[in-house]
Amino acid sequence: MTDKQSLSSMQAEVDAFIQQFKAGYFSPLAQMARLTEEVGELAREVNHYYGEKSKKQNEAEKTVAEELGDVLFVTMIMANSLHIDLTEVFQENMQKFNQRDKYRFERKDGQVHEAE
């Protein structure tokens, strides 16, 4: 892996990994179940590190970063199998958020919503 990879190159790397197996991509529903499982594991780690629930003594040590990585990996698997270019999706979402949410929160630059 290079220091900084694009989403496209990461999706291609994930695809190359999946293509080496006969099973290939699972169904979208199975992938959604896996993504939900990974998000649950992320929630558990966030709760351990930032919440009130401490780990049990016999629980394996994991990190929030590791679980976020798992969520990203499974997200890329799902995007690949559905032929979704995450770079395009990201760019479209940023455009949406920059327009829709430009004044949603108090801004550091002091700008406020312009009168309609």
UniProtKB/TrEMBL annotation:
Gene3D superfamilies, alphabetized: MazG-like (1.10.287.1080)
Keywords, sorted A to Z: Hydrolase
Ranges where the NTP pyrophosphohydrolase MazG-like domain occurs: 27-105
GO molecular function, one term: hydrolase activity
One of the Pfam families matching this protein, by short name: MazG
Keyword hit for Hydrolase: yes
SUPFAM superfamilies recorded: all-alpha NTP pyrophosphatases (SSF101386)
Entry-linked InterPro entries: MazG-like_dom (IPR004518), MazG-related_YpjD (IPR012359), YpjD/YvdC (IPR047046)
Protein name per UniProt: MazG nucleotide pyrophosphohydrolase
Organism field: Candidatus Enterococcus testudinis
